[in-house]
Protein backbone atom coordinates (compact mmCIF):
# COMPACT_ATOMS: atom_id res chain seq x y z
CA UNK A 1 0.00 0.00 0.00
CA UNK A 2 1.10 3.57 -0.59
CA UNK A 3 1.41 6.18 2.15
CA UNK A 4 -2.22 7.17 1.98
CA UNK A 5 -3.44 3.57 2.22
CA UNK A 6 -1.23 2.93 5.24
CA UNK A 7 -3.94 4.55 7.36
CA UNK A 8 -6.73 2.36 5.99
CA UNK A 9 -7.97 -0.75 7.80
CA UNK A 10 -5.65 -3.69 7.24
CA UNK A 11 -6.74 -6.15 4.57
CA UNK A 12 -6.45 -9.05 7.05
CA UNK A 13 -9.58 -7.95 8.91
CA UNK A 14 -7.93 -7.32 12.26
CA UNK A 15 -9.59 -3.92 12.63
CA UNK A 16 -6.21 -2.21 13.02
CA UNK A 17 -4.77 0.27 10.55
CA UNK A 18 -2.52 -1.33 7.94
CA UNK A 19 0.54 0.56 9.23
CA UNK A 20 0.03 -0.94 12.70
CA UNK A 21 -0.77 -4.44 11.57
CA UNK A 22 0.18 -6.40 8.47
CA UNK A 23 2.87 -4.00 7.32
CA UNK A 24 4.90 -5.30 10.27
CA UNK A 25 4.83 -8.76 8.76
CA UNK A 26 5.90 -7.51 5.35
CA UNK A 27 8.71 -5.42 6.79
CA UNK A 28 10.04 -8.41 8.70
CA UNK A 29 9.82 -10.66 5.68
CA UNK A 30 11.90 -8.14 3.76
CA UNK A 31 14.48 -7.56 6.48
CA UNK A 32 14.98 -11.12 7.66
CA UNK A 33 16.10 -9.70 11.01
CA UNK A 34 14.08 -11.83 13.35
CA UNK A 35 14.53 -13.52 16.69
CA UNK A 36 12.76 -16.70 17.67
CA UNK A 37 10.84 -16.51 20.94
CA UNK A 38 11.62 -18.95 23.71
CA UNK A 39 8.70 -20.92 25.10
CA UNK A 40 8.68 -18.96 28.37
CA UNK A 41 8.45 -15.73 26.36
CA UNK A 42 5.52 -17.13 24.38
CA UNK A 43 3.83 -18.16 27.62
CA UNK A 44 4.22 -14.62 28.97
CA UNK A 45 2.50 -13.19 25.88
CA UNK A 46 -0.39 -15.65 26.19
CA UNK A 47 -0.80 -14.89 29.88
CA UNK A 48 -0.88 -11.17 29.23
CA UNK A 49 -3.37 -11.24 26.38
CA UNK A 50 -6.01 -13.83 27.26
CA UNK A 51 -8.97 -14.00 29.62
CA UNK A 52 -9.58 -10.78 31.45
CA UNK A 53 -12.05 -10.34 34.28
CA UNK A 54 -15.53 -9.26 33.15
CA UNK A 55 -19.15 -9.75 34.15
CA UNK A 56 -20.95 -11.16 31.12
CA UNK A 57 -24.34 -10.28 32.63
CA UNK A 58 -23.57 -6.59 33.14
CA UNK A 59 -26.08 -5.54 30.45
CA UNK A 60 -28.96 -7.75 31.62
CA UNK A 61 -31.99 -6.00 33.05
CA UNK A 62 -31.66 -7.16 36.66
CA UNK A 63 -32.72 -5.50 39.89
CA UNK A 64 -29.17 -4.55 40.86
CA UNK A 65 -26.00 -3.49 39.11
CA UNK A 66 -22.77 -5.46 39.11
CA UNK A 67 -20.81 -5.71 42.31
CA UNK A 68 -17.19 -4.69 42.13
CA UNK A 69 -15.80 -8.15 42.76
CA UNK A 70 -15.41 -10.54 39.80
CA UNK A 71 -15.32 -14.09 41.14
CA UNK A 72 -14.11 -17.50 40.01
CA UNK A 73 -17.55 -18.62 38.86
CA UNK A 74 -18.15 -22.35 38.46
CA UNK A 75 -19.77 -23.43 35.21
CA UNK A 76 -20.62 -26.72 36.90
CA UNK A 77 -21.78 -26.87 40.50
CA UNK A 78 -18.87 -28.03 42.62
CA UNK A 79 -20.92 -29.47 45.49
CA UNK A 80 -23.26 -31.37 43.16
CA UNK A 81 -21.73 -32.35 39.85
CA UNK A 82 -17.97 -32.23 40.42
CA UNK A 83 -17.94 -33.81 43.86
CA UNK A 84 -20.27 -36.52 42.58
CA UNK A 85 -17.62 -37.86 40.18
CA UNK A 86 -14.49 -36.87 42.13
CA UNK A 87 -12.05 -39.10 43.99
CA UNK A 88 -9.96 -37.42 46.67
CA UNK A 89 -11.06 -34.04 45.32
CA UNK A 90 -9.88 -34.75 41.76
CA UNK A 91 -11.42 -35.39 38.35
CA UNK A 92 -9.98 -36.05 34.92
CA UNK A 93 -10.00 -33.36 32.22
CA UNK A 94 -8.36 -32.56 28.90
CA UNK A 95 -5.89 -30.03 30.19
CA UNK A 96 -2.38 -28.76 29.61
CA UNK A 97 -0.97 -26.72 32.45
CA UNK A 98 0.88 -24.37 30.09
CA UNK A 99 2.75 -24.19 26.79
CA UNK A 100 5.64 -26.18 28.27
CA UNK A 101 3.31 -29.13 28.78
CA UNK A 102 1.86 -28.69 25.30
CA UNK A 103 5.25 -28.76 23.59
CA UNK A 104 6.49 -31.57 25.83
CA UNK A 105 3.52 -33.66 24.72
CA UNK A 106 4.19 -32.86 21.03
CA UNK A 107 0.90 -31.00 20.79
CA UNK A 108 -1.15 -33.92 22.09
CA UNK A 109 -3.55 -33.28 24.97
CA UNK A 110 -4.32 -36.19 27.29
CA UNK A 111 -6.64 -36.71 30.23
CA UNK A 112 -5.04 -35.42 33.42
CA UNK A 113 -6.18 -35.22 37.02
CA UNK A 114 -7.09 -31.77 38.31
CA UNK A 115 -8.58 -30.50 41.57
CA UNK A 116 -12.30 -29.72 41.62
CA UNK A 117 -11.68 -26.45 43.44
CA UNK A 118 -10.42 -24.82 40.25
CA UNK A 119 -12.14 -27.09 37.70
CA UNK A 120 -14.72 -25.39 35.48
CA UNK A 121 -14.09 -21.88 36.86
CA UNK A 122 -13.83 -18.65 34.87
CA UNK A 123 -13.72 -14.93 35.68
CA UNK A 124 -17.01 -14.21 33.95
CA UNK A 125 -19.44 -13.01 36.63
CA UNK A 126 -19.57 -10.63 39.53
CA UNK A 127 -20.68 -12.10 42.86
CA UNK A 128 -24.18 -10.60 42.59
CA UNK A 129 -25.00 -11.92 39.13
CA UNK A 130 -23.51 -15.35 39.81
CA UNK A 131 -25.89 -15.81 42.74
CA UNK A 132 -28.87 -14.05 41.15
CA UNK A 133 -28.77 -15.90 37.83
CA UNK A 134 -28.02 -19.42 38.99
CA UNK A 135 -29.59 -19.86 42.41
CA UNK A 136 -32.44 -21.82 40.80
CA UNK A 137 -30.03 -24.56 39.68
CA UNK A 138 -27.57 -24.25 42.58
CA UNK A 139 -29.98 -24.15 45.51
CA UNK A 140 -33.12 -25.87 44.18
CA UNK A 141 -33.66 -29.37 42.88
CA UNK A 142 -33.56 -29.41 39.09
CA UNK A 143 -37.04 -29.99 37.63
CA UNK A 144 -36.61 -28.53 34.14
CA UNK A 145 -38.62 -25.42 34.99
CA UNK A 146 -38.50 -22.48 32.56
CA UNK A 147 -36.39 -20.48 35.01
CA UNK A 148 -33.92 -23.34 35.39
CA UNK A 149 -33.74 -23.96 31.64
CA UNK A 150 -32.93 -20.30 31.08
CA UNK A 151 -30.24 -20.37 33.79
CA UNK A 152 -28.74 -23.55 32.34
CA UNK A 153 -28.64 -22.19 28.78
CA UNK A 154 -27.33 -18.80 29.94
CA UNK A 155 -24.48 -20.36 31.90
CA UNK A 156 -23.34 -22.29 28.81
CA UNK A 157 -23.69 -19.18 26.68
CA UNK A 158 -21.81 -17.00 29.19
CA UNK A 159 -18.77 -19.27 29.16
CA UNK A 160 -18.64 -19.27 25.36
CA UNK A 161 -19.24 -15.50 25.19
CA UNK A 162 -16.43 -14.94 27.69
CA UNK A 163 -13.97 -17.11 25.75
CA UNK A 164 -14.83 -15.68 22.35
CA UNK A 165 -14.75 -12.08 23.58
CA UNK A 166 -11.34 -12.66 25.13
CA UNK A 167 -10.03 -14.23 21.95
CA UNK A 168 -11.29 -11.58 19.55
CA UNK A 169 -10.25 -8.71 21.85
CA UNK A 170 -6.72 -10.05 22.15
CA UNK A 171 -6.15 -11.64 18.75
CA UNK A 172 -5.17 -8.22 17.39
CA UNK A 173 -2.54 -7.91 20.11
CA UNK A 174 -0.97 -11.18 18.99
CA UNK A 175 0.13 -9.86 15.61
CA UNK A 176 2.91 -7.51 16.62
CA UNK A 177 4.69 -9.44 19.41
CA UNK A 178 4.38 -12.85 17.79
CA UNK A 179 5.09 -11.94 14.20
CA UNK A 180 8.10 -9.79 15.12
CA UNK A 181 9.80 -12.65 16.89
CA UNK A 182 9.43 -15.80 14.83
CA UNK A 183 11.84 -17.01 12.16
CA UNK A 184 11.20 -16.06 8.55
CA UNK A 185 9.19 -19.16 7.62
CA UNK A 186 7.01 -18.97 10.70
CA UNK A 187 6.23 -15.30 10.09
CA UNK A 188 4.83 -16.14 6.68
CA UNK A 189 3.08 -19.31 7.77
CA UNK A 190 2.01 -17.99 11.18
CA UNK A 191 0.55 -14.77 9.83
CA UNK A 192 -1.81 -16.70 7.59
CA UNK A 193 -2.91 -18.78 10.55
CA UNK A 194 -3.43 -15.69 12.72
CA UNK A 195 -5.49 -14.02 10.02
CA UNK A 196 -7.70 -17.09 9.61
CA UNK A 197 -8.08 -17.40 13.38
CA UNK A 198 -8.93 -13.73 13.74
CA UNK A 199 -11.59 -13.84 11.03
CA UNK A 200 -13.11 -16.92 12.60
CA UNK A 201 -12.96 -15.36 16.07
CA UNK A 202 -14.72 -12.21 14.85
CA UNK A 203 -17.49 -14.22 13.20
CA UNK A 204 -17.89 -16.42 16.27
CA UNK A 205 -18.11 -13.42 18.57
CA UNK A 206 -20.68 -11.78 16.30
CA UNK A 207 -22.76 -14.93 16.76
CA UNK A 208 -22.43 -14.53 20.53
CA UNK A 209 -23.56 -10.89 20.31
CA UNK A 210 -26.62 -11.99 18.34
CA UNK A 211 -27.49 -14.69 20.89
CA UNK A 212 -26.94 -12.24 23.75
CA UNK A 213 -29.38 -9.77 22.20
CA UNK A 214 -31.97 -12.53 21.84
CA UNK A 215 -31.52 -13.59 25.46
CA UNK A 216 -31.84 -9.99 26.66
CA UNK A 217 -35.00 -9.56 24.61
CA UNK A 218 -36.95 -12.42 26.13
CA UNK A 219 -35.31 -11.97 29.54
CA UNK A 220 -36.60 -8.42 29.76
CA UNK A 221 -40.14 -9.38 28.78
CA UNK A 222 -40.04 -12.36 31.16
CA UNK A 223 -40.70 -14.79 28.31
CA UNK A 224 -38.69 -17.95 28.90
CA UNK A 225 -40.38 -20.07 26.22
CA UNK A 226 -37.88 -19.15 23.50
CA UNK A 227 -35.60 -21.99 24.55
CA UNK A 228 -36.22 -25.51 23.30
CA UNK A 229 -35.21 -28.55 25.33
CA UNK A 230 -34.48 -32.23 24.95
CA UNK A 231 -33.37 -33.96 28.15
CA UNK A 232 -32.58 -37.34 29.64
CA UNK A 233 -32.97 -37.88 33.38
CA UNK A 234 -31.26 -41.03 34.67
CA UNK A 235 -31.38 -42.62 38.10
CA UNK A 236 -27.87 -44.07 38.22
CA UNK A 237 -24.52 -42.37 37.74
CA UNK A 238 -23.13 -40.73 34.65
CA UNK A 239 -19.30 -40.79 34.84
CA UNK A 240 -18.79 -37.40 33.23
CA UNK A 241 -20.17 -33.86 33.45
CA UNK A 242 -19.89 -30.88 31.13
CA UNK A 243 -21.28 -27.59 29.93
CA UNK A 244 -20.81 -26.00 26.53
CA UNK A 245 -22.40 -24.00 23.71
CA UNK A 246 -21.48 -24.86 20.14
CA UNK A 247 -22.56 -25.05 16.51
CA UNK A 248 -22.93 -28.64 15.31
CA UNK A 249 -20.82 -29.43 12.25
CA UNK A 250 -21.96 -32.96 11.40
CA UNK A 251 -25.16 -34.80 12.24
CA UNK A 252 -25.34 -38.25 13.80
CA UNK A 253 -25.20 -39.86 10.36
CA UNK A 254 -21.93 -38.08 9.59
CA UNK A 255 -23.35 -35.55 7.14
CA UNK A 256 -22.29 -31.89 7.29
CA UNK A 257 -25.37 -29.96 8.41
CA UNK A 258 -23.72 -26.55 8.77
CA UNK A 259 -20.25 -25.71 7.56
CA UNK A 260 -18.66 -24.01 10.56
CA UNK A 261 -15.57 -23.33 8.43
CA UNK A 262 -17.51 -21.33 5.83
CA UNK A 263 -16.82 -17.65 6.52
CA UNK A 264 -19.71 -16.63 4.25
CA UNK A 265 -22.35 -18.53 6.23
CA UNK A 266 -24.45 -15.71 7.72
CA UNK A 267 -25.53 -17.19 11.06
CA UNK A 268 -24.74 -20.49 12.72
CA UNK A 269 -27.27 -22.31 14.86
CA UNK A 270 -25.98 -23.00 18.36
CA UNK A 271 -26.92 -25.65 20.88
CA UNK A 272 -25.95 -26.07 24.52
CA UNK A 273 -25.13 -29.37 26.20
CA UNK A 274 -25.20 -29.68 29.98
CA UNK A 275 -24.48 -32.95 31.77
CA UNK A 276 -24.76 -32.64 35.54
CA UNK A 277 -26.30 -33.90 38.77
CA UNK A 278 -29.28 -32.40 40.58
CA UNK A 279 -29.75 -32.14 44.33
CA UNK A 280 -31.78 -35.39 44.46
CA UNK A 281 -28.85 -37.30 42.94
CA UNK A 282 -30.35 -37.76 39.48
CA UNK A 283 -28.11 -37.40 36.44
CA UNK A 284 -29.23 -35.01 33.69
CA UNK A 285 -28.17 -34.73 30.05
CA UNK A 286 -29.81 -31.60 28.62
CA UNK A 287 -29.75 -30.10 25.14
CA UNK A 288 -31.08 -26.54 24.69
CA UNK A 289 -31.33 -24.20 21.74
CA UNK A 290 -33.10 -20.99 20.76
CA UNK A 291 -36.54 -21.53 19.28
CA UNK A 292 -35.96 -19.09 16.43
CA UNK A 293 -32.86 -21.01 15.30
CA UNK A 294 -34.05 -24.57 15.42
CA UNK A 295 -34.06 -26.37 12.05
CA UNK A 296 -30.58 -27.89 12.35
CA UNK A 297 -30.84 -28.56 16.07
CA UNK A 298 -34.28 -30.17 15.75
CA UNK A 299 -32.97 -32.39 12.95
CA UNK A 300 -30.17 -33.51 15.25
CA UNK A 301 -32.59 -34.28 18.10
CA UNK A 302 -34.93 -36.21 15.81
CA UNK A 303 -31.98 -38.38 14.77
CA UNK A 304 -31.00 -38.83 18.43
CA UNK A 305 -34.47 -40.12 19.34
CA UNK A 306 -33.98 -43.09 17.01
CA UNK A 307 -31.43 -44.62 19.40
CA UNK A 308 -31.81 -46.40 22.73
CA UNK A 309 -31.15 -44.49 25.98
CA UNK A 310 -27.72 -46.10 26.39
CA UNK A 311 -26.85 -45.27 22.78
CA UNK A 312 -28.07 -41.69 23.24
CA UNK A 313 -25.81 -41.27 26.27
CA UNK A 314 -22.86 -42.57 24.26
CA UNK A 315 -23.70 -40.11 21.45
CA UNK A 316 -24.00 -37.20 23.89
CA UNK A 317 -20.72 -38.25 25.49
CA UNK A 318 -19.06 -38.10 22.07
CA UNK A 319 -20.77 -34.76 21.41
CA UNK A 320 -19.23 -33.51 24.66
CA UNK A 321 -15.73 -34.57 23.56
CA UNK A 322 -16.08 -33.15 20.05
CA UNK A 323 -17.58 -29.78 20.90
CA UNK A 324 -16.99 -28.79 24.53
CA UNK A 325 -13.72 -28.02 26.27
CA UNK A 326 -15.37 -27.90 29.67
CA UNK A 327 -15.75 -31.63 30.32
CA UNK A 328 -14.76 -33.63 33.39
CA UNK A 329 -14.56 -37.38 33.98
CA UNK A 330 -14.82 -39.65 37.00
CA UNK A 331 -11.41 -40.76 38.22
CA UNK A 332 -12.67 -44.26 39.05
CA UNK A 333 -14.31 -44.60 35.65
CA UNK A 334 -11.22 -43.54 33.69
CA UNK A 335 -8.79 -45.54 35.83
CA UNK A 336 -10.85 -48.67 35.28
CA UNK A 337 -11.36 -48.05 31.57
CA UNK A 338 -9.74 -50.26 28.98
CA UNK A 339 -6.50 -48.55 27.98
CA UNK A 340 -7.37 -48.66 24.27
CA UNK A 341 -10.76 -47.07 24.91
CA UNK A 342 -9.12 -44.29 26.91
CA UNK A 343 -6.63 -43.69 24.10
CA UNK A 344 -9.50 -43.61 21.57
CA UNK A 345 -11.29 -40.93 23.62
CA UNK A 346 -8.11 -38.86 23.78
CA UNK A 347 -7.58 -39.30 20.05
CA UNK A 348 -11.14 -38.19 19.34
CA UNK A 349 -10.55 -35.00 21.34
CA UNK A 350 -7.21 -34.27 19.65
CA UNK A 351 -8.67 -34.92 16.21
CA UNK A 352 -11.09 -32.01 16.71
CA UNK A 353 -8.11 -29.69 17.22
CA UNK A 354 -7.10 -30.61 13.67
CA UNK A 355 -10.58 -30.17 12.21
CA UNK A 356 -11.37 -33.90 12.19
CA UNK A 357 -14.71 -34.89 13.70
CA UNK A 358 -15.05 -38.58 14.55
CA UNK A 359 -18.40 -40.34 14.33
CA UNK A 360 -20.89 -39.49 17.07
CA UNK A 361 -21.89 -43.15 17.21
CA UNK A 362 -18.33 -44.25 17.97
CA UNK A 363 -18.35 -46.75 20.85
CA UNK A 364 -16.72 -44.58 23.54
CA UNK A 365 -18.86 -45.09 26.63
CA UNK A 366 -20.57 -48.23 27.90
CA UNK A 367 -23.08 -47.18 30.54
CA UNK A 368 -25.91 -49.38 31.76
CA UNK A 369 -28.98 -47.38 32.71
CA UNK A 370 -31.39 -48.75 35.30
CA UNK A 371 -34.09 -46.10 34.92
CA UNK A 372 -34.41 -43.11 32.60
CA UNK A 373 -36.95 -40.48 31.59
CA UNK A 374 -37.03 -38.51 28.35
CA UNK A 375 -38.21 -34.92 28.71
CA UNK A 376 -38.81 -32.20 26.11
From TrEMBL:
InterPro entries: SEC_C_motif (IPR004027). It comes from the Bacteria. Pfam families: SEC-C. This is SEC-C domain-containing protein.
Amino acid sequence: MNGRNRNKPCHCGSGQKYKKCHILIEQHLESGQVKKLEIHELQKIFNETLYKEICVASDLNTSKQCTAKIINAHTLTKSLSLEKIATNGQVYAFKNKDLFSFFKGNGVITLKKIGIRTASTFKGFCSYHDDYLFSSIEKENFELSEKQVLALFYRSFALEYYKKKSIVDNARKSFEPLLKNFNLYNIDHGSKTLIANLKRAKLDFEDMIRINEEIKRFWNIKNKTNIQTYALKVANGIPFVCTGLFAIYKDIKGNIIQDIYDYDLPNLEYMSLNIFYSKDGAGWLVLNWLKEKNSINELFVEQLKEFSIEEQINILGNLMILYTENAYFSVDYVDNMDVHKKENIEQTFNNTLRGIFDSLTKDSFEIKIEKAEVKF
